[in-house]
Design a protein that fits this description.
Structural class: alpha/beta
Number of strands: 7
Number of helices: 3
Order of helices and strands: EHHEEEEHEE
Shape: elongated
Length: about 160
């Protein structure tokens, strides 16, 4: 069983979503199915079919979340240290073409959000950065083309 790395923040977010699905969404869809059944003929009842479809989605998501939570390897970045990039590191990069600096934190796949500076451990950039140190150059092929960066800072916060 392969472990799924994630930060404590990401783990808590998955826990919260699972709790919401089980305590709010699941009972609501069960009630909607019961109400739709009262309308009679189920073969032509759009409300019933929509509620069943939503129930199927919720149950699938619950199973997915339970699986990820059971395989979670929670890594706390503040307890890490070192000079090389690894999961949880916050990296400052300088674009070698424009000298523009960007900062990203490497997080689990379910918690990535590029707008907040959180990149997935499975992203091409994160994979290229793993093991690099300050001063190292990294070339990454992105959907927008090839980019070159220099690692200018590594922090664990």
């Amino acid at each position: 069983m392969e472990k799924v790395p994630m930060t404590a923040r990401g783990y808590n977010r998955l826990q919260d979503e699972l709790k919401h699905l089980k305590s709010v969404e699941r009972p609501a869809v069960i009630k909607a199915i019961a109400e739709a059944r009262e309308h009679g003929d189920l073969s032509e009842n759009a409300e019933y079919h929509a509620a069943r479809e939503k129930q199927s989605f919720i149950e699938g998501r619950v199973m997915e979340l339970e699986d990820k939570i059971s395989r979670a390897e929670v890594i706390e970045p503040t307890k890490l240290s070192g000079n090389a990039v690894k999961f949880g590191a916050t990296i400052t990069l300088a674009d070698e073409d424009t000298d523009e600096e960007v900062t990203y934190q490497i997080v689990g796949q379910d918690e990535s959000d590029i707008k907040q500076g959180l990149i997935s451990i499975t992203s091409p950039l994160a994979r290229a950065l793993i093991g690099k140190s300050v001063g190292d150059n990294v070339e990454v092929t992105t959907p927008g083309g090839s980019k070159s960066y220099e690692v200018v800072g590594i922090a664990f916060k």
